[in-house]
Design goal:
The protein is built from nine helices and eight strands. With 350 residues, the protein is an alpha+beta fold. The protein folds into three domains: 101 residues; 68 residues; 162 residues, 2-Layer Sandwich (Heat Shock Protein 90), CATH 3.30.565. It has a six-stranded mixed β-sheet, with helices on one face. Strand 4 and strand 5 form a beta hairpin. The longest helix is centred in the N-terminal third of the chain and has 89 residues. This is histidine kinase. It catalyses: ATP + protein L-histidine = ADP + protein N-phospho-L-histidine.
Length: 350
């Protein structure tokens, strides 16, 4: 084994080496001083007599006394130093034990998360095929010789088809949620305006059916991959359309503000809004604030959870502001790129 050089500060941290030597030296100095006094019980009287008869000797004796007092002080300081080193050593040992415990818990948590993601991925993948067959055969059954089926049977088949389709959508959302962390963060810079344009084009039919007006302010370049940006905007636009108010035509406004080196992008709508007590859970997976049976809001509760995971993976954060019955504003922040803002556009999908 190659001997390792231990710095003096590490010796102090260990409570050994120089620390023990200092303590021993201090104890010896104190012991020698008091032993000297013990062997000369009349030393005080001798000091006084010498001081009266021989002033020069008195000065020399005073120096001896001063040296003895200094030795006593050094010994006391060494003892205090030794106690401090021992306390430091015990504290360092407790910290090392705590750090080892936290490391073990962190590793265990990582294994649990990896296992859960693996289970979700396998379950989603394995469920796709049987669900696809269920939908296909249910549709065949619904279209086969309807004249020979009564209304109840038709309703039953319709419920089977709707349930199978919903389950397929749920599994697809679960796969999207799990797959977020599989894409590494590259640090590339892309245009948020271009990503919004692509998202609007892909959702053109949805926006047109809802009669939605989409207003997009100039958007900057941000540190994010293009696929993630497009997915974020698609989920937020789809959420705004899905939870629109039946009392007014939907208007969606995409805006941006700057906060230091971060871009704060918001997607605002005039839809149903959210009750204050429900806002804290809006980005939880499978959470639907308006219930699963609402005709205007048949979402699965995975879209906003995917947005949260995407934004957090890119180093940003998400938030929501809302007035119940008046609309909501979903925002996210990402680090700005170097390019200026892109051009804005208003698009009315009537």
């Amino acid at each position: 084994m190659v001997p390792r050089h231990i710095p003096i500060i590490e010796r102090f941290d260990d409570g050994g080496g120089f620390g023990r030597l200092s303590a021993v030296a201090g104890v010896l100095l104190v012991a020698l001083f008091w032993l000297g006094l013990g062997f000369n019980p009349g030393i005080e009287r001798q000091f006084a007599a010498i001081g009266t008869a021989h002033p020069m000797e008195s000065g020399r004796t005073g120096g001896m006394v001063l040296g003895a007092v200094m030795a006593l002080g050094v010994g006391g300081l060494c003892l205090l130093l030794f106690q401090a080193i021992c306390w430091q050593r015990r504290t360092a040992e407790r910290l090392r034990l705590r750090e080892a415990e936290l490391t073990e818990q962190r590793d265990r948590l990582r294994r649990y998360v990896a296992d859960l993601e693996r289970i979700a991925d396998v379950a989603a993948h394995d469920l796709q095929e049987p669900l696809r067959r269920m939908v296909s055969y249910s549709q065949l059954l619904a279209s086969h010789d309807k004249a020979g089926c009564d209304d109840d049977v038709k309703d039953y088949v319709g419920h089977v088809v709707d349930g199978a389709r919903r389950m397929r959508a749920l599994v697809s959302g679960l796969r999207e949620f799990v797959a977020v962390d599989s894409t590494p963060r590259t640090g590339e810079v892309n245009s948020a305006w271009v990503a919004m344009t692509v998202a609007r084009q892909r959702l053109a039919e949805v926006l047109a059916e809802a009669g939605a007006t989409l207003v997009v302010d100039p958007l900057p370049e941000v540190e994010a991959d293009q696929a993630s940006l497009i997915e974020i905007f698609m989920q937020l636009l789809d959420n705004a359309v899905r939870y629109r108010s039946p009392e007014r035509r939907p208007v969606i406004h995409v805006s941006v503000s700057r906060d230091g080196d971060m871009a704060r992008i918001k997607v605002c709508d005039n839809g149903l809004g959210i009750e204050p007590a429900r806002m804290a859970r809006m980005f939880e997976i499978f959470y639907r604030p308006h219930g699963g049976g609402e005709r205007l809001a048949p979402g699965l509760g995975t879209g906003l959870a995917v947005v949260r995971r995407l934004v957090e993976r890119l180093g940003g954060r998400v938030w929501v502001e809302s007035e119940n019955g008046l609309g909501s504003s979903f925002g996210f922040s990402l680090r700005l790129g170097a390019a200026p803002l892109g051009r804005g556009e208003e698009n009315k999908a009537a």
